[in-house]
What we know:
Blueprint: E1 7-21, E2 27-42, E3 46-50, H1 57-64, E4 72-77, E5 80-81, H2 87-94, E6 97-100, H3 104-107, H4 114-124, H5 130-143, H6 160-172, E7 178-182, H7 190-207, E8 210-215, H8 218-224, E9 227-232, E10 235-241, H9 242-247, H10 252-259, E11 310-313, E12 316-318
Parallel strand pairs: 3-8, 3-9, 6-7, 7-8
Antiparallel strand pairs: 1-2, 1-4, 4-5, 9-10, 10-12, 11-12
Helix pairs in contact: 4-5, 5-6, 6-7
Bound molecules: iron/sulfur cluster (SF4).
Amino acid sequence: MHNENDIILKAEHVKKYFPIKGLVGNVTGNVKAVDDVSMHLFRGETYGLVGETGCGKSTLGRTLINLSEATSGNITINGQEITRIKPKEMHFLRQKIQMVFQDPYTSLNPRMRIGDILTEVLEIQHIGKRAERMDMVIEMLEKVGLRVEHYYRYPHELSGGQRQRVGLARAIILNPDLVVCDEPVSALDVSVRSQIINLLLDMQQDRNLTYLFISHDMSVIRYTSRRTGVMYLGHLVEEAVTDDLFANPMHPYTQVLLSAVPTPNPHIKRKRIVLSGDLPSPINPPTGCVFHTRCPAAKEICLSQLPEMVELAPNHRVACHIGA
Ligand code: SF4
């Protein structure tokens, strides 16, 4: 069981709005990508963040580690407030918080050799002397299942799976505490996905890493994550231990997502719930519960009142007027 002291990241009422500029540079509105999210991560766990494309999960991941500045709210990592942190302090903290991106090809400089890409990470943080850095990089390449020869290769000479191994090496080489994995396997062939997932999990066990694992794929989340949060249109709508979430989804949106996931037992078939309409625009989200325009269970109150997150079962929080 975790307690308050085990928390590595705590986010309270975090918002991330992107202003929309008019013709003369005036702000005419906001894209409300993340809207009042509170959550925490325990040290050493994997927290899965799931939701359809455009729900704000990647923006939340970037905001939580200060790659994108929060519009408002508080975020602490290792007890240090990062929403008002000085750039120099952030530079040191950056060692401890890293990110693995969806598409390693676009996140690796095509003109640099793999060894130089990884060495640069150490140089920026002033870690090791020149010869030591080379040893550290080669050791890390081997840890992620690559060979010494890959040190001298360019990103385009590697396969997608090998590039993602480099992406992982780049995140891990600084010995971080927390890694945000943003759809780390969704750009890969199905045949190599499980290799990369298992590598991530092995790394986690070796180094007691904490992962925020962002994915649109419920099956990947189920395999990787101890707890899961479900996002819809910038809001966290349900959060629970992953097994509980799959066994007893309480929010109508989670029920929709899970109805599309194949069950391990072919004799048990879930009734597929198909949502009507498209995801509304985060520029002009619906009033009340943001899911009410598509919710099969919506009632009068949902049109005007935003439901609060409440704990409906132990460690199972839901934002819905039903059951609250
Ligand atoms: Fe549906 Fe209302 Fe619950 Fe929102 S609050 S998910 S609209 S029942």
